[in-house]
């Protein structure tokens, strides 16, 4: 099956599911340099697969590009495709990390899913592809653990 053309610079329909969403990559003009790219997704939404109630998270995606960069419009469309997708917090977080890693083959990728409480319990989920490249500055993700009223 031939890869579709880039979604950048043209109107596209919002994908209905994560499986039908297209993640685009573009050539990295600095592929000989180790550096970190961070995507912050403060309003991630999916559905509880049991109750159908909405779940909310703050996602932090950090990656060290290899030959490819993740195109941000396609990431926005992919993230939006979870809005009506039922999956547990752990599944959503790891699924997103694995899909991005599969598409762009970064030198390193990590994702932090900081989920807001449901049933009184916040859940944080973390996944990464391997070791951080030597000498690469990877700042803390900066999302405070949930403290409730404290």
Automatic annotation (TrEMBL):
It holds the Pfam family QueF. Its EC number is 1.7.1.13. GO terms for molecular function: preQ1 synthase activity. It is found in: Cytoplasm. It is an enzyme of class 1 (oxidoreductase). InterPro entries: GTP-CH-I_C/QueF, NADPH_dep_7-cyano-7-deazaG_red, QueF, QueF_type1. It comes from the Bacteria. Pathway: tRNA modification; tRNA-queuosine biosynthesis. Its main location: cytoplasm. The keyword Amino-acid biosynthesis does not apply. One of its GO terms (cellular component) is cytoplasm. Substrate binds at residues 70-72, 89-90. The active site is at residues 48, 55. GO terms for biological process: tRNA queuosine(34) biosynthetic process. It catalyses: 7-aminomethyl-7-carbaguanine + 2 NADP(+) = 7-cyano-7-carbaguanine + 2 NADPH + 3 H(+). Keywords: Cytoplasm, NADP, Oxidoreductase, Queuosine biosynthesis. Belongs to the GTP cyclohydrolase I family. QueF type 1 subfamily. Catalyzes the NADPH-dependent reduction of 7-cyano-7-deazaguanine (preQ0) to 7-aminomethyl-7-deazaguanine (preQ1). PANTHER family: NADPH-DEPENDENT 7-CYANO-7-DEAZAGUANINE REDUCTASE. This is NADPH-dependent 7-cyano-7-deazaguanine reductase.
